[in-house]
Amino acid sequence: MKLNLFAIILLLLPLIGYTQDTINEQAIQKKNIVRWNITPLAVNATNFTLGYERILKNNRSFSVNAGLLLFPEFLNNDSLEVSSVEHGGRFGFTVAADYRFYLTKKNLSPAPEGVYIGPYITYYQYGFDTKLTVFDNDNVTNELGVDAMFRMFSLGFELGYQFVFWQKLTLDLILIGPSISYYQAKYDLTGDLSVDKNSELYKYLQEQFYDKYPWVESFVELDAVNTNGSFGGMGLGFRYVIQVGFHF
User: Could you tell me how many helices (H) and strands (E) the chain has, helices first?
Assistant: First the structure.
């Protein structure tokens, strides 16, 4: 009886090993990740961006992201010269895509866990309109309306690392992402456009652009507060992303 039982166990061992390998293979073959990009929350608490990654053969993948991306209001009432600010509508969104190569020689686990590199492309658009009224001794000295639209198109290369916990929870970190970017702005100014460059109002407008929209520094340099029209130009950009997701 004992001999027969021992023989049965020997016969079952290959099947047990095969079953275990199948389970491990199925775990490895999870190819989808849905995730939430939490990075834009540092800019505005209402921002919401979702993404999806699909694992391909040879430890490669592609991913896409899209969502709402708003920046702080352009103007507020914290300037001594700007006595009244009326905020109009504003809308911003972003889309991005990348193609990843997971470095098998550096990673202990198969994709989507470990170090990856690859190209990426992003597009961002943001528009707003604002009206400010300036008073001097209870007299209106200037009324200026700003209706602006900014666009940014970037092509770059990224280096990142993705953690996978319990085969389900992911933490994706794009650590380095330099890019070549094309910036474009269109603007329409109404009211008294003869703003003195030495005035507190002009300096205030400059500070707002530099602090809240640093990528459009040339908007101020091209004297946009005194003219209407549009401009575009090339520059350097950067991408840094933190995302949490579900692997299935």
Answer: 3, 10
Q: Three-class SS of residue 104?
A: coil
Q: Which residue reads 């300037």 in tokens?
A: 79
Mean pLDDT of the chain: 77
Strands 60-68 and 114-136 turn out to be unpaired
- 83-87 CB contacts, 8 Å cutoff, 24+ apart: 83/133, 83/134, 83/135, 84/132, 84/133, 84/135, 85/130, 85/131, 85/132, 85/133, 86/130, 86/131, 86/132, 86/133, 87/128, 87/130
**Look-up of token digits 């500070």:** 207
Band (163; pLDDT cuts 50, 70, 90): very high
Q: Which amino acid is at 121?
A: I
CA-nearest of 120, 118, 98 to 159 is: 118
Burial 110-120 (b: 16+ CB within 10 A, else e): bbbbbbbebeb
Cα–Cα distance list, 191 to 31, 137, 146, 175 (Å): 56, 20, 9, 45
Report pLDDT digits (tens) over 35-68. 999 999 988 888 999 999 999 988 999 999 999 9
From the CB of residue 225, how many other CB atoms can be counted at a distance below 10 Å? Answer: 19
C-alpha torsion 206→211→217→219, nearest 10: -50
Handedness of CA 91, 97, 103, 109 (dihedral sign): positive
C-alpha torsion 202→151→93→78, nearest 10: 0
pLDDT category of residue 31 using cuts at 50, 70 and 90 = very high
For residues 105 and 169, give the distance between their C-alpha atoms in angstroms, rounded to a whole number.
23
